[in-house]
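WARN  no MSA supplied for this record, continuing single-sequence
INFO  ligand: flavin mononucleotide
INFO  echoing inputs
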Amino acid sequence: MYLLTFITKIFHFLPEEIAHKFALSGLKVSHSIGLLRLLLGKNNMGKDISKKSNGKTAFKNKLGLAAGLDKDGEYIDSLSALGIGFIEVGTVTPLQQKGNPKPRLFRNRTDKSLLNRLGFNNKGVEALVEKLKKRNSNIPIGVSIGKNFDTPNEEAYKDYLFCMEKVYEYSSYIAINISSPNTKELRELSNKKFLKDLLRSLKDKQIKLSESFDYVPIYIKISPDEKLEDLENICKSIMQYGIDGIIASNTTVIHNNKNGYGGLSGSPLKNKANEKLSFIKKIVGNKVSIIASGGVMSASDYQEKIDAGADFVQIYTGFIFEGPKLIHDILFRNSPQRKT
Ligand SMILES: Cc1cc2nc3c(=O)[nH]c(=O)nc-3n(C[C@H](O)[C@H](O)[C@H](O)COP(=O)(O)O)c2cc1C
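INFO  complex generated
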């Protein structure tokens, strides 16, 4: 574990996107030659211990990797070996796209944050489906879907339905990303004008697909920048249309980062994301499942989300800064008040 932490810190001397690629490729190689297991040591990390119940893979714990880390599902087997309970891959769009011009990812070591304006760079939903078919691990997989940058909002529902149909039978849940700040006007999909029609068409598609396959829950990923009044309306619509869950939340655009526009994640996001999480919990109670995301950099940050009512918790920026040690701390460090 110490060696892995050391390697994680070394990657921080490389430019952000190169470090990301190198780190994930290194993980994949070390997993394929059996080295990862040795580096991780004991505590069940290093082997896939996903439980099976009624033929379906159950979540072995409540900790997951958030969307955006493995956009194209290329690292599922090696990431699953880290001990986490689930992985959300994507966001994918119907057609592959390059995303925004580089540089578009910035690390700030002082406040432990990332600023990104990637813009849904991905290889397209069909490429992801091929990866999902070929994976060896049976860890639960959420698939995050979005719309292509040039699809107008009036037509956006078609992109979501297209992706949903493709990934449905390979997913443990489907995340509807309407909150990335890096695709122009995407966040408007949470407005009254679009939201109800989108939710209705997603629900209809889910009912239809569940006649041929197992029932796959749908989660809507929201922005932490929603006003409380709007958030209340979103929650009510989600309940009205029988949507299964909410992911709270994506990155924030309210910041003065020196690198310009984009979504901010990590430590500075935590309080805002937690406020929204508590507010959502108050409205939806136990009627809707909640995956909490935003600013989990330590085991106590994880516990705060559970205490605020999260059913599951995801990490992203914390994993970039701390590496596999963060997963280890959350899952295996003996903490008297920890309830996983
Ligand atoms: C580089 C980067 C890329 C991301 N890409 C996506 C994405 O494709 N889809 C998505 O729903 N969220 C994406 N996110 C948001 C994360 O999934 C997560 O919700 C957010 O970063 C807050 O969690 P954190 O503070 O633990 O990082 C991305 C975040 C980062 C830092």
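The domain at 2-332 is CATH 3.20.20.70 (TIM Barrel).
INFO  checksum written, moving to next record
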